[in-house]
Amino acid sequence: MNPQKIAVLTDSCADISPALARERDIFVLPLKIIYPDKEYSDGVDITPQEIYQRMPQALPTTSLPDGGTLLSLLDEIKSQGFEKVIAICLSAGLSGTYNMVRLMAENYEGLQCAVFDSNSGSLGEGCLALEVTNRLAQGASWEELLCLVPRLRENTQVMFSLDTLEYLQKGGRIGKISCIAGTMLQIKPIISFAPDGQLASISKVRGRYRSMDEMAERIRAMVPTDGTPYTLATAHGGCPGDLEYLKNKLHDEIGCATHYYEGEIDCTLGVHTGPHLIGCGIQILE
Predict the structure, then answer these.
(1) Judging by DSSP bridges, how do beta strands 187-193 and 199-206 pair with one another?
(2) Residues contacting residue 163 through CB under 8 Å, at least 6 positions apart
(3) Are 173 and 94 in contact (CB under 8 A)?
(4) Neighbour count for residue 142 (Cβ, 10 Å)
(5) Contact call for residues 233 and 123 (beta carbons, < 8 A)
(6) For 55-94, what is each residue's pLDDT tens digit?
(7) φ, ψ dihedrals at 191, nearest 5°
(8) Which helix (H) or strand (E) holds 34?
(9) 147 vs 199, residue with greater confidence
């Protein structure tokens, strides 16, 4: 355990693999996946593949983490000797998870908790949590971390390409994305997060591979040219072949990155995006 006795907590939408979470001692709070006949915990007793296989005939709803589960997680953190917690949560523009964690954690006796809205999800949220663990390993203090997270959040950009907006519309998470009547023309939206944490369209291109090419071009343009370190990350929703294509497009940039993370879209976000999401992100490490 780090000598500062600071724990890192995030939720299942950070898309940090279980193996990496264990390696970094990151505590992960699962959101809920709800079918008419059963309720599941994201990444615990259901996988994204299982959800995709049941689509479109069966489309579950999603819900906030269970309060009892959060309290149990905080109890575990305290029992392991931690005294403080940095929590990084899914964008409040998409979910009430941040407010729930903030209210419960900040009133939990025996732990000093600082809860941050990532204004993002998936790669953006995960990179924030992982970089906090990097800085802890380097000896960063509590006060340094409190200043670091907002800076990192401003320096993190993620984007995703979707096959269809159908699932975002059905789930009410369409945000600032304009509806596209272009299925027959193979128009693919590229989306990101607006400053308020809602989803926003940043481009519309024709064809799956062209959308990945454009994302790679956009990320490449954000890579610092002055030697400033940076992190790159990629993720997919049930389309590992497309992930390899995108990684090949970003091969040189990944090779020069200080850190590179690879993930799979979680169940919660997968419900709202549908299968075949492909995404990438960059975080400038000042």
Answers:
(1) antiparallel
(2) 188, 208, 274, 275, 276, 277
(3) yes
(4) 15
(5) yes
(6) 989 999 999 999 999 999 999 999 999 999 999 999 999 9
(7) -120, 155
(8) strand 32-35
(9) 147
Q: Could you tell me if 112 and 87 are in contact, meaning their C-beta atoms sit under 8 angstroms apart?
A: no
Instruction: Categorise residue 21: left if φ over 0, alpha if ψ from -120 to 50, beta otherwise.
Output: alpha
What gap in Å lies between CA 233 and CA 261, rounded to an integer?
5
Closest CA to 197 of 64, 94, 63: 94
Phi then psi dihedrals of residue 36, to 5 deg: -55, -30
* Structure token digits, residue 160: 């995703």
pLDDT in tens, 158-216: 999 988 777 777 755 555 555 554 454 577 889 999 888 888 888 888 889 999 999 99
- C-alpha 26/C-alpha 29 separation (Å) is 10
14 is written with which tokens?
């950070």
pLDDT at position 187: 79
